[in-house]
Specification:
This protein is of the alpha/beta class. It has 16 helices and 25 strands. The chain has three domains: 77 residues, 3-Layer(aba) Sandwich (Udp-n-acetylmuramoylalanyl-d-glutamate--2,6- Diaminopimelate Ligase, Chain: A, domain 1), CATH 3.40.1390; 234 residues, UDP-N-acetylmuramoyl-L-alanine:D-glutamate ligase; 147 residues, Alpha-Beta Complex (Protein-Tyrosine Phosphatase, Chain A), CATH 3.90.190. The protein binds ligand UAG, adenosine-5'-triphosphate, 2,6-diaminopimelic acid and magnesium ion. Pathway: Cell wall biogenesis; peptidoglycan biosynthesis.
Amino acid sequence: MTKRLSDLFNRPFANDSVIAGVTADSRKVTAGWLFAALPGTKVDGRDFAEGAVAKGAAAILAPEGGLEGLGVPVVRSEDARRAYALASAAFWGKQPAMCVAVTGTNGKTSVAGFCRQIFAQLGHKAASMGTLGVVVSEAGQPDQQLTPPGLTTPDAGDVAEMIARLADMGVTHLALEASSHGVDQRRVDGVKLKAAAFTNFTQDHLDYHGSMEAYRAAKLRLFDTLTPAGATAVLNADSEAFPTFASTAVTSGQSVFSVGEDGQGLRLISRTPTPAGQDLVVEAQGRTYDIRLPLAGAFQASNVLVAAGLCVAAGEDVGKVLKALENLEGAAGRLQRVGRGPHGGEAYVDYAHTPDGLQTVLEALRPHTRGKLIAVFGAGGDRDRGKRPLMGAIGAKLADIAIVTDDNPRSEDPASIRAAILEAAPGAREIGDRRAAIRAAVDLLAEGDVLVVAGKGHEQGQIVAGVVHPFDDVAETLAALEGVDA
Ligand SMILES: CC(=O)N[C@H]1[C@@H](OP(=O)(O)OP(=O)(O)OC[C@H]2O[C@@H](n3ccc(=O)[nH]c3=O)[C@H](O)[C@@H]2O)O[C@H](CO)[C@@H](O)[C@@H]1O[C@H](C)C(=O)N[C@@H](C)C(=O)N[C@H](CCC(=O)O)C(=O)O
Ligand SMILES: Nc1ncnc2c1ncn2[C@@H]1O[C@H](COP(=O)(O)OP(=O)(O)OP(=O)(O)O)[C@@H](O)[C@H]1O
Ligand SMILES: N[C@H](CCC[C@H](N)C(=O)O)C(=O)O
Ligand SMILES: [Mg+2]
């Protein structure tokens, strides 16, 4: 269907051009497109407006001020990023009928993937969108990976295009990850959410947000602005930030469905580790359910309850949802068991890249360790520097052997990132080369020991000085266990 400027902005225009596409990237503009000229963190998109018009842009969307005499309509907005998201959604039109979102410092990818799997088991064509890309699931069909891993929350135009494509494919249920960057930059403002969830709030991304308050405000925006009144807010009641999120949700007119040990909607009564994962006893709507969860770790129990809460909020039967938990698969690279060492012991790969993530995964593995717990980890370059000593201290305290290595130094000097970690990690070893660090850890692995290679999970590259070198923790760990070249 032909879209005009008036359809995109819901108001009349004297020069109501037909719009052929919408983008915030001038490099994508062709004849008839709307170009959103947005000031960014590195450059100012307004500097590309003239070039976009030269390439045939039919209209420009921009913040107030500047950009006179371009010869095409300039649509002004006080919140141009939001206007871009809403215009993109209006341009693409369709969305799956049931869109739900999850935010939180850790656990978003896991929760989004669990929701997709539960919805699919209950007979819906379902998708997840996030760090692992876009995946579609349908009962009896192999999963479809539509896009590769990229941003956790893609650009607003890409989100709108992708969810329209999903709706066209017959996807009715979508769970998407709302990262704090994504919410702050209005990347999901165009999505009509029926429910939203919160996992937890701990330190990360202070390089971008500047303070914990600003970081929290970005996450709260999912509830105070993006989730409509009358919708359900599914909140992890065991998080210290629960009261803040609950009061924001209530003030915004949402009904709170709390989950966890302190939860009212889904209350975790007990959790018993088993060789295959853990047995959960959960109370819901006055009944008690026994669940054999095929995933280990208290944090996974927490994540599955958040996912189950979202599915219940989406209208699914609570008994069927809880039954579906028995067939869940963990997200790739999240507490993923890789194999046994040549002299015994077990090796895992995990995506812990925050202080709380590292603490959580080490605490999850401790009960499975009869000998030594060995951790290989680093911290990302061009990311929150405050995380480094915190992760060092946690690694040194909670692992028996901590090996500090590189994890995407990006534009920074790898040795100084390691030094910042090691400063707070007495007794930790330093092996910069990640392959050598994994090999050294595997050499130490004996019967009863557990090794976790943390920080990169599913990632396929090591970013050094802006260059991505192929690197896969799972493949590297497996090769080290088998004593072969990766
Ligand atoms: C810091 C940050 O979040 N940057 C994101 C942001 O870029 P920006 O708007 O600041 O970009 P900019 O380079 O200053 O450019 C400004 C504008 O000029 C435009 N431009 C630029 C050049 C040109 O030739 N023509 C042109 O039109 C750009 O398209 C942009 O609209 O908006 C872009 C489009 O949505 C994102 O791709 C970009 O993500 C960068 C690549 C990134 O690395 N982001 C990471 C930190 C991120 O977003 N991570 C989160 C959190 C993950 C987690 O939960 O841990 C995520 O959701 O993945
Ligand atoms: N509920 C949780 N509480 C604390 N730590 C968790 C929790 N869930 C996952 N983690 C840790 O965080 C890591 C990342 O998990 P996951 O990918 O699900 O989170 P995410 O929020 O999507 O991360 P990202 O911000 O990179 O998108 C896991 O490998 C694990 O170490
Ligand atoms: N979404 C997170 C992923 C971090 C993964 C870790 N391997 C790193 O590079 O720090 C970020 O961009 O901060
Ligand atoms: Mg994620």
